[in-house]
Amino acid sequence: MELKHLERRVDELLQRLTALKSENRSLRESQSALISERARLIEKTELARSRVEAMITRLRAMEQDS
Predict the structure, then answer these.
(1) Residue closest to 62 by CA, chosen among 5, 54, 18
(2) CA distance linking residue 8 with residue 12, whole number of Å
(3) Which helix (H) or strand (E) holds 1?
(4) Alpha carbon of 47 to those of 20, 26, 42, 44, 60: distances in Å?
(5) How far is Cα 64 from Cα 66, in angstroms, rounded to an integer?
(6) What CA–CA distance (Å, rounded) separates 48 from 56?
(7) What is the dihedral of CA 53, 54, 55, 56, to 10 degrees?
(8) What kind and span of H or E run contains 66?
(9) pLDDT at res. 65
(10) CA distance 30 to 38
(11) pLDDT (tens digit, 9 = 90+) per residue, 24-63?
């Protein structure tokens, strides 16, 4: 009887292990996607910042010419 209980417990633990491995894989994939998205957004923000700074510089130059 105790052996059956142990077998069931081992089976439960193996199922839990499988589920946790799957969840871990999914979380790692999500993390990777979020890291890529963050890098893309940082790049996009830097580009926008550069453009705005260039526009401000041009506006100041136009202002001084007037």
Answers:
(1) 54
(2) 6
(3) none
(4) 40, 32, 9, 5, 20
(5) 5
(6) 12
(7) 50
(8) none
(9) 82
(10) 12
(11) 999 999 999 999 999 999 999 999 999 999 999 999 999 8
- By residue count, the chain amounts to 66
Residue with tokens 């839990």, as numbered in its chain: 16
Q: Which two tokens stand for residue 26?
A: 């999914």
* Amino acid in the structure at residue 4: K
Paired tokens of 16: 């839990």
What is the amino acid identity at position 51? R
* Alpha-carbon separation of residue 18 from 13, 22, 23, 27, 51 (angstroms): 9, 6, 9, 14, 50
How many CA within 13 A on the CB side of residue 48?
A: 6
Instruction: Match 């010419």 to its residue by tokens.
Output: 65
